[in-house]
Design brief:
By secondary structure, the protein is α/β, with parallel strands linked by helices. The chain contains 15 helices and 6 strands. The chain has a 6-stranded mixed sheet with strand order 1-2-3-4-5-6, sandwiched between helices.
Length: 330
């Protein structure tokens, strides 16, 4: 039994014929209210206050070299927005990130501050002081880090599209397994809940085993027809993007013995449009096999796995929208 009203290859082609917009996807427009300036009421943004406090302590240390100040800096760095301060931004020049620093024991944190502060003071602090540590630089850091939110935004997009189709979000998988036309956005701390779900449903979910027990992004129950999905928002390939694409490609290569279970790989963003280009080139035979690139290979892999596994789907925004509409009305 194929668990869709529309053939998965037809929806793959529908996605390819309805590519992603080059810009302006409303789901990925970030919150522009996070402005690092003083409000009309005179209250400063927490990041601005944190920056001022860190700068004051650094200035005191630059003058006195009193190591007792390091204790105060360690405590102050345990604050919200710390990763967006000017001081922490400099750490990347020394192959250090705040996420690594946070896991250090206190003694190592102190040692690192003894190492980094003289360099920061000499190479940055004395120059920044001349320009009064402008809030503009903090705004640039906040804006530049916006791309890191794309993973969460992908899940919010899936949630919004499911709700728009009439599905109800539930907070746990036991409710989802018994209540039709529901969905769940999987949290990172849901590994045990997902283990129980797989056991209760008698599914292997080998993709998860191959990817270090990584959780998928969402699960949907359409009238006792279940889909496990992974969502990615990608503008370009290369680097770490290749590993994330591999997760999508691998997911649709698996199948379950239960015919009421399928897998969905959801990809939006401009990277999807490269598959549209490959589809056109292969269909029209306008490329040389000698010049076949990674996208052509991936396109063929997707098509082959969808042919082998009719319960699986590889979809973009328009394809997922039609998929939801088809399943709900089935």
């Amino acid at each position: 039994m194929v668990i869709a009203n529309s053939n998965n290859l037809e929806l793959w082609e529908f996605s390819l014929n309805n590519p992603e917009p080059p810009f302006g996807d409303p789901y990925y427009i970030l919150n522009n209210e996070n402005i690092i300036t003083k409000s009309a009421s005179g209250q400063a943004h927490p990041l601005l206050l944190l920056e001022e406090n860190i700068t004051t302590l650094i200035n005191e240390y630059a003058v006195s070299k009193y190591e007792g100040i390091l204790d105060s800096i360690v405590k102050l760095l345990d604050s919200e927005y710390t990763n967006s301060t000017t001081f922490i931004s400099y750490w990347h020049q020394h192959d250090m990130s705040f996420s690594v620093y946070k896991d250090f024991p206190t003694s190592t944190k102190m040692d690192f501050l003894k190492y980094i502060l003289p360099k920061y003071i000499e190479q940055r602090h004395i120059y920044y002081k001349k320009h009064n540590y402008s809030a503009i630089s903090l705004q640039v850091v906040i804006d530049n880090a916006g791309h890191k939110e794309s993973g969460n935004l992908s899940n919010k997009k899936i949630q919004a599209m499911c709700e728009s189709a009439g599905l109800i979000q539930v907070s746990d998988l036991s409710t989802l397994s018994s209540k039709e036309f529901t969905f769940n956005i999987i949290r990172g701390d849901s590994k045990e809940m997902l283990d129980r779900f797989c056991e209760e449903m008698s599914i292997d979910f080998k993709w998860r085993v191959d990817h270090k027990r990584k959780n998928p992004d969402f699960i949907i129950n359409f009238d006792k027809k279940f889909f496990i999905g992974e969502a990615k928002h990608k503008k370009e390939g290369g680097g770490g993007q290749n590993d994330q694409m591999l997760e999508l490609l691998d997911l649709i290569s698996f199948s379950e013995k239960r015919k009421d279970f399928g897998y969905i790989s959801f990809l939006d963003g401009l990277l999807f449009n490269k598959f549209t280009d490959a589809h056109s080139e292969i269909k029209q035979k306008t490329f040389s096999k000698k010049k076949s690139n990674k996208i052509h290979t991936q396109y063929k892999s997707i098509t082959m796995n969808l042919s082998k596994n009719p319960n699986n789907y590889f979809l973009n925004t328009k394809g997922f929208e039609l998929f939801l509409k088809t399943q709900v009305s089935d």
